[in-house]
Each structure stands twice: as structure tokens, then as C-alpha cells.
Write a structure and sequence with these properties.
Mean pLDDT: 91
Radius of gyration: 11 Å
Largest sheet: none
Distance between the termini: 23 Å
Helix content: over 70%
């Protein structure tokens, strides 16, 4: 979905998938990316915090958070 720039669809798909796999940090990361694409930085920052709580040693999550904070 992000390859096509369809952030709304990515958000919907990741949200549905998280219902089945709530501990999946990659799905939470995808939600954060989709929210950035929808210009919802505050929500994306909250999602990135959730993803980091699930996987605190993930550098891609820290980088995403830094990018959100720099916007």
C-alpha cells in the first residue's frame, strides 16, 4: 500500500492485522508510517512509542521516532 502512496489502506490493513497479532512491532511501525503519510504526526509519535515498547532494541523504530520529532 505504501508503494502506491495509499496510506489510508496501509493504516486499515495494519490495524486489522494488529487485532490478530497485537505484539507485532512491525505492524505498529506500519501504522506509524501510515499516520505520517496522512499528516497525523502526533498519532504517529504515539504509535512509534508503542512499537518501541514492544521492541526497544529496534534501530528502525528509533529512527522513525527521530524523523517524526524533526518534522
Amino acid at each position: 500500500a505504501t508503494d502506491r502512496g495509499d496510506h489510508k489502506t496501509l493504516l486499515e490493513l495494519a490495524t486489522e492485522a494488529l487485532k490478530k497479532s497485537p505484539d507485532d512491532s512491525e505492524l505498529t511501525l506500519n501504522r506509524a508510517r501510515a499516520l505520517i503519510g496522512l499528516d497525523k504526526e502526533d498519532q504517529a509519535l504515539a504509535e512509534s512509542a508503542l512499537a518501541l515498547a514492544k521492541k526497544p532494541d529496534a534501530p528502525e523504530l528509533r529512527l522513525l521516532r527521530a524523523n517524526i520529532l524533526l518534522r
